[in-house]
């Protein structure tokens, strides 16, 4: 009667849990059909589990086995426990400090009742949400083992923080787990646990222990009899921190250490007025967290059963020697030590050594396409040759490597920015925009033009110079590229503005020299870099000869192109044709060679203030503009209408609307941008005068309505924010 009442009370508690976990708890943690007494009674009757039961009583966990809650117990026999105590140089279990004993015994008790079938193929959504492709992969289960609250100093603010350590998770590796992954169970399990340990061919191993007898039903759960004591596992972070071999890796990781206030835990476990925190590592994967989910995603931390059971921190930690070799090759010309390197490149290196997903076994390395860095590149190394240490952990696994897995962006055209601090502002803009990933492509060649911080601080974006704020040097993400707003206050440059600026510096294709004439697309639409006369030009410097842009190649074996340092930031000309052409009579005006054409536009009212070129309706456009001498000759010969009404319509023949003709690019020789296009001159209802542009590969030509061919000058067009101006030396027919 007592057991039945306890079961009913426990079931009522389960029903009150979060609705997301309700289905799981009802389907997976139901009371067994066959009752043989509670777990404590069953083990006591067997007689050879006395040391384990003594530990249960001394650790204060007897009420769990007595039937106060539903549970699954993994019980090592007396021989196994005696062997364990001897290996640890402990005379008897009574000599163990109480916290150590709780830690050990609690690791043999997991929440809820699991029969054999459910434990070897745990499904967090129960039978209704069964996932055959994930059979056996939900491998971790919450135990009753935890560490005491610790106190740590937060270096970012100098305050002490009380850190709460949640219950450890216990890995259960079933044959089904390895079958689902298509890998050999014995070889992969024993890679971590040692030869001769795997006994799970017909079921599973409980971490380092084999099972002598499966799923003995009790009135409050199940008992599994083990051949070994389960060694309590630490987090990956704790495992690595214990080894001096990886002290540099941990020191770098701890540069991002932060403390996340855990409100629910503080309410439930903290003393009055206290706050409890979880150790986090800012933007990096939380390898120090006991749980792979800590709330914040719409579920309480305990209720996201799928992520808690499935997700592991797989850490591929390079040794100190490997990190120092990496430092020497990549950073030693610019920094005094690896610890002095800017936080951003260090973060990218750390990112490249952690995979958040299911636990990774050696046979999966280089073969499972899902195992890749956060940058999308496969994680590949030789588990036999490149690994010097490895260990299973409560929240994942680690492989101790003898090499650094270098992120691609350190060897692509972005390499100089991520290695050399003189390009720090550009580096942070690459990261903020995410464009470093595109620029690290293995399939596309680029030329990247990188301005130094000094150059960028002399660059105007909008109405303001650029500024740099280092922020708190201990807090990653506190850095900012700034501009001055209309009120004179420094504010962060928007990500979109950063993207535009970086995209102007990206050229598709590899520029090896400045010989000849070249037109190369940047990432921004309708924006190009010119090579002509032995110099490189952005549209801004090409339109303004006084801006002297020089470049110098940055030495390095960049696998997807070339990188150059520039004396000016590459920027598109922000001026508009509409506003520039009105002042074309000024000698310094970039459209001065079209001053006579500008006069014609003004004569017929097309350049009125507030109504400049109104027939374009604000569209981007191409202007095929006759130069001054051609216009003067046309006026003298009568080829240009003298009547203002006729002239107003005639001049529209020189303008082509880009969107109305669905042009995704401006025409340049060899680009293949050609066809019959509508000009802006109406000839009837919804009918327009036509111009045909012909790409002759080495030059461009226009074909007029009567078939006359008009050469387009080989002089590169002037590009502005609203269009492009191409020079022609013949007039269109009236």
Automatic annotation (TrEMBL):
It comes from the Bacteria. Signal peptide: none annotated. PROSITE patterns: FAS1. Residues 36-230 form the FAS1 domain. PANTHER family: FI19380P1, PERIOSTIN-RELATED. This is Fasciclin domain-containing protein.
């Amino acid at each position: 009667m007592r057991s039945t009442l306890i079961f009913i009370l426990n079931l009522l508690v389960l029903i009150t849990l979060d609705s997301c976990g309700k289905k799981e708890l009802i389907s997976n943690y139901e009371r067994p059909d066959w009752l043989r007494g509670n777990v404590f009674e069953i083990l006591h009757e067997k007689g050879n589990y006395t040391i384990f039961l003594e530990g249960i009583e001394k650790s204060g966990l007897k009420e769990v086995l007595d039937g106060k809650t539903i549970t699954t117990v993994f019980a090592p026999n007396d021989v196994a426990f005696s062997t364990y105590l001897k290996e640890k140089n402990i005379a008897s279990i009574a000599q163990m400090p109480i916290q150590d004993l709780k830690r050990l015994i609690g690791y043999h008790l997991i929440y809820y009742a699991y029969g054999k079938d459910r434990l070897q193929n745990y499904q967090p959504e129960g039978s209704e949400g069964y996932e055959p492709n994930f059979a056996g992969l939900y491998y971790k289960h919450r135990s009753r083992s935890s560490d005491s609250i610790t106190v740590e100093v937060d270096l970012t603010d100098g305050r002490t923080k009380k850190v709460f350590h949640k219950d450890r998770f216990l890995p259960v590796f079933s044959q089904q787990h390895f079958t689902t992954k298509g890998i050999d169970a014995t070889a992969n399990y024993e890679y971590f646990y040692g030869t001769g340990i795997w006994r799970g061919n017909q079921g599973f191993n409980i971490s380092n222990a084999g099972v002598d007898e499966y799923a003995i039903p009790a009135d409050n759960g199940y008992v599994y009899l083990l051949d070994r004591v389960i060694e309590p596992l630490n987090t990956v972070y704790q495992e690595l921190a214990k080894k001096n071999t990886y002290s540099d890796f941990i020191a770098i990781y701890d540069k991002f250490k932060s403390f996340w206030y855990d409100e629910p835990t503080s309410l439930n476990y903290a003393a009055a007025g206290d706050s409890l925190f979880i150790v986090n590592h800012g933007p990096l994967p939380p390898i120090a967290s006991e749980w792979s989910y800590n709330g914040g995603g719409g579920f309480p931390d305990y209720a996201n059963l799928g992520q808690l059971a499935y997700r592991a921190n797989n850490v591929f930690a390079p040794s100190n020697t490997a990190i120092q070799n990496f430092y020497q090759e990549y950073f030693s010309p610019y920094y005094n030590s690896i610890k002095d390197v800017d936080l951003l490149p260090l973060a990218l290196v750390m990112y490249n050594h952690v995979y958040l997903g299911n636990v990774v076994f050696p046979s999966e390395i280089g073969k499972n396409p899902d195992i890749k860095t956060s940058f999308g590149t496969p994680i590949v190394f030789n588990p036999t040759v490149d690994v010097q240490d490895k260990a299973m952990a409560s929240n994942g696994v680690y492989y101790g490597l003898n090499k650094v897995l270098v992120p691609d962006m350190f060897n692509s055209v972005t390499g100089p920015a991520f290695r050399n601090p003189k390009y720090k502002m550009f580096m942070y803009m690459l990261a903020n925009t995410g464009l470093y990933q595109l620029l690290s492509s293995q399939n596309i060649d680029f030329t990247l033009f990188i301005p130094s911080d000094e150059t960028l601080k002399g660059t105007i974006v909008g109405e303001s110079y650029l500024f740099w704020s280092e922020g708190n040097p201990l807090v990653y993400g506190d850095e900012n590229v700034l501009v001055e707003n209309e009120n004179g206050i420094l504010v962060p440059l928007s990500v979109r503005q950063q993207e535009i600026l970086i995209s102007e510096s990206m050229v598709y294709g590899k520029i090896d020299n400045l010989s000849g004439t070249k037109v190369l697309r940047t990432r921004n639409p309708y924006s190009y870099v010119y090579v002509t006369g032995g110099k490189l030009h952005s549209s801004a410097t090409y339109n303004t000869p006084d801006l002297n842009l020089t470049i110098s190649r940055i030495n390095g074996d960049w696998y997807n192109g070339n990188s150059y340092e520039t004396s000016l930031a590459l920027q598109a000309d922000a001026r508009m044709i509409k506003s520039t052409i009105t002042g074309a009579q000024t000698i310094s005006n970039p459209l001065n060679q079209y001053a006579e054409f500008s006069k014609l536009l003004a004569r017929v009212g097309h350049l009125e203030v507030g109504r400049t070129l109104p027939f374009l309706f604000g569209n981007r456009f191409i202007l095929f503009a006759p130069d001054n001498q051609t216009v003067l000759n046309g006026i003298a010969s009568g080829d240009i209408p003298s009547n203002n009404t006729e002239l107003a319509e005639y001049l529209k023949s020189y303008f082509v609307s880009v969107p109305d003709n669905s042009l995704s690019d401006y025409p340049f020789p060899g680009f293949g941008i050609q066809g019959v296009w509508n000009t802006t001159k109406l000839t009837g209802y919804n009918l327009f005068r036509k111009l045909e542009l012909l790409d002759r590969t080495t030059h461009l030509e226009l074909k007029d309505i009567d078939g006359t061919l008009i050469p387009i000058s080989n002089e590169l067009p002037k590009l502005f924010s609203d269009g492009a101006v191409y020079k022609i030396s013949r007039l269109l027919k009236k």
